[in-house]
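Friendly challenge for the regulars: who can give me the C-alpha cells for this chain first? No prize, just bragging rights.
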Amino acid sequence: MNRTIITVVGRDTVGIIARVCTYLAESNINILDISQTIVQGYFNMMMIVDTANSSKSFDSVQDQMSKIGEEMGVQVKCQREEIFDMMHRI
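First reply, four minutes later:
Bragging rights claimed.
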C-alpha cells in the first residue's frame, strides 16, 4: 500500500469534498479514511488515501491537488505517510 495524507484547509465553499474526491476517483486513488469539520466558516479535511493502483506519480497527484485547491480558494497539501509520521512524532 502507498499511503498519502491529504489535507484541505480554507474558507468553506460548495463542492470542496466533491471536487477532491472526483479527482481521486478518476485517478484510481482509494480513500481509506476521511475526517472533515467546519468551524465558523472554515473548512478542514484530512484524508488518508492509497495510491498503489494509480498510474499517476506522487508528484503529479501533488501538483494537480494543489491546482485544484487554488481554483477553489483553499490550500491542499499531499504528503507521503512516512514523511507525515516523521514530522508529527513526539
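Residues 3-88 form a domain with the Alpha-Beta Plaits fold (CATH 3.30.70.260). Residues 59 and 78 are 9 Å apart (CA to CA). Your move, everyone else.
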